[in-house]
Amino acid sequence: MNTTLIRKHVLHNKHHKWLSGLLFLAALSGCGGGSSSGSELGITVPPSNVPPSTTEPTLPPTTTEPALPPASTPIAKAPFTCAEGAITCVEVAAPSAQAQASVPVTFGQPFKAGDWLHTTQGLIAKVNGATIPLQADEISSHRDGSARFAVLSAQLKDVQPGEARIINLYTGAKANSPPSVPADPDWNLEVETQVYDASGNVTATLVTQPQAQLKSQIASNSGRRLSGAVASEYTVVTDFKDKASGTPHPHLSARFHTRLVDGGARIRTDVVMENTRTWTTAPGNITYSMVIKRNGVTLHTQPKFTHYHHARWHKVVWTGSSVQPLVRVRHNMPYFMASKAVWNYDLGLKIAEASLAKDYADLANARTDQAALGPMGNGLLEKYFPMTGGRSDIGPYPRWTANYLVSQDQRAQEVMLSIADAAAAVPIHYRDEDTSYPLDLDRYPTVSITPSWSNPVLPTIVDGTTIWTPDIAHQASYAYVPYFITGDAFYLDEMMFWTAWNAAAPNPTYRGGGQGLAKDNQVRGQAWAMRALGETHRSLPDNHPRKSYFGGRLATNIDWYAKQYPLNPNASSLYPLNAIPKPDEPHLTGPWQNDYFGIVFAQLAENSDPNAKVVLDWVSKFNLGRFNAEAEGFCTARVAGYYWTIVDVNKAPYTTWKSLYQANYPGESCSSTQTIDGYPNWSGGYAASARAMMASANNAGVSNASITYSKWRSMTTSMDADFANNPTFAIVPR
Hints:
The chain is an alpha+beta fold.
């Protein structure tokens, strides 16, 4: 919808009930979909045979569809508590119909600052007071040096059908957990593909056999990610070679995240198929079928599909003396939230059963409908990112992720992980052949994914049609919570790829070359790019080679915002009332986009990123101030608006709330009968995102945020019930 037209309606129409409906439609267009202007920089990759929407979105339904039966019987979700004195705990439940003699389990675990001083303390796991084997790997630290996150592996024995055990975590003396890994494990995987041309003819049979590489890495102790008595995991990277000639394929490769448990008697392999090379000539789509074998026995078959350029997918297989361990992990979610790894969602919500069942059924239907796309299907994810309308993926976290955090329902977990897997099919994955890591701006400060902006220019893509059109302004958080839940390397890599693409996609001139500044994206795009930077930096282990790289770009971006806004002596004339303007139309500001920015910077501030609180305090003067300015002439009913004009015809800024109000709502006076803008009855509107902003600001220590939250919540109580259907913005004060 045309921004200017909307603004004229805002300025001149007095029929506020009709106007509120128009604003809501505009809000959907801004919050969930299309750009308000096509001139903002570095945000969108042109569509690949996907036309933009030309229709207005529809309002969300007021009733909930009947529950659909899940595809499998959920494990009981009875509340559980940790033992006295424990830092936290997790529940491990077995849905299996058979007893399991050995159950090794690996999961991610965040920690509150100060709870575990991992450099001097060990971590101990107990079940019913008895110590069980535990190892901790991939540790990321808070800025005070204590553990922020770790991948934990625990060993359970003799787990009975339907049994649930609570693993309590304590600090204790440091102890060694020496690994026991055979020199030549009985792994012997083989992956074979048949490659097809456009006519459907087989042009090559490719194969990779990683056994020798794994043996070599065990001998040299290289490429090892997990190391201990419970689990040892190696990342084995191989090319595919022509079965007849032995010639490596120029683009198709595999990464095997190979986890040995039970002393190597069982092996979990996350087989990652990649078409991600950055500098190799003639990148493009590859059509193939695939089979994974062990000792000649087929473990998995993937029918013919087209693997998109700069995309990847994965499949987990288990091999060895017995079947894979069948257990489900539930975290102590109050502690998980208290760690500040995620926003503080309202755990008092009960996610509607109908909503959980419908998502699960919709996923099953999507997989059936998209079967021809194979692993490149979009599932429930919107494939045209700039699409208009209310969207489940837009918000601090996608609705599916928020569903999982609040409910820990196993169906919600599967849906959440499916979204992360679908995002891996988006053609944003550029792996530098020289470093084996995503494309970085230290090596190539003037590179861009857009050829006309890039120096050096990336190789021309051949046969590059996909279903996807990615951008930054409508980008979700796909892999962060999945990584913090599972500890799987695949999701950690996904975070790096998306964050690297966000930096490399824009014009180098406007992003500050190698600095990778987010500043010229739409304000919402700036928020999501900063969210991705923060997530990636927090997630990467302290000893990861890319830790300092992403941390440096995070610090550079925050410092830019600090110098541009709170530390800028000219800020008051450039940014009236502390509102961040649209980069391409600086006479306008989107209050809802400022709210998104505030939500993200609140999380950065909670995690003690330097200068993040300074920036948050500055933007909060606008974000919170507009809700408390009725005595100064700005009606509270209009604070959840779409776009506002912030300068007069002479480009002089409006410096008072009254002048800002009269410019955008001329002649209107405050009254108790005014209709509240931002769709206050709906959990997905601007009124809801404003709530999330206030709660997040409160949690980051912004003054007056708590009072403002209470006031606004009292004015929007009708949205509370709808949070059970959509908890995207159900963030509450800690």
